[in-house]
Design a protein that fits this description.
The chain is of the alpha+beta class. It has one domain: Trna Endonuclease, Chain: A, domain 1. About 35% of the residues lie in helices and about 35% in strands. The chain contains three helices and five strands. α3 links the parallel β3 and β4.
Length: about 120
């Protein structure tokens, strides 16, 4: 599968965090370190971004919070779980649809090799 340049760069940054920390920590630890890598890479991002949605003609403020929205066109959801579930996938796909962002990454840091904990979705 061919990834866009931004996805490749972000995956590389996540791999760096995983190399330094390894599996087994809480999601919040990975989130903090991942944000540091994004800053170091000079990428524009919003962390814990509150996203408003439209519902039947009215606005719903802060309907959900995306872990990261990077460069305005990539949603990244970080996890530290024993395995991805259908709920994790549904969450990311719904966030992408409601935020009108077509590319998303689901990254689970609780794996031996991070390549086994990355899923990329395109709407």
């Amino acid at each position: 599968m061919e990834f866009d340049a931004l996805s490749k760069q972000v995956i590389g940054l996540a791999i760096e965090v995983h190399k330094q920390l390894g599996p087994g920590l809480l999601e919040s630890a990975y989130q903090i370190c991942f944000a540091k890598e994004l800053v170091k890479a000079g990428l524009r991002f919003e962390k814990e971004k509150k996203v408003d949605i439209e519902y039947k003609g009215s606005s719903v403020d802060s309907a959900f919070r995306a872990d990261f929205i990077i460069e305005g066109n990539l949603i990244v959801e970080l996890k530290s779980v024993s395995a991805f579930t259908d709920v994790h996938t549904a969450q990311l796909l719904t966030y992408m649809k409601l935020a009108k962002i077509s590319v998303g990454l689901l990254i689970d840091f609780n794996v031996k090799y991070l390549k086994d904990g990355i899923k990329r979705y395109v709407l």
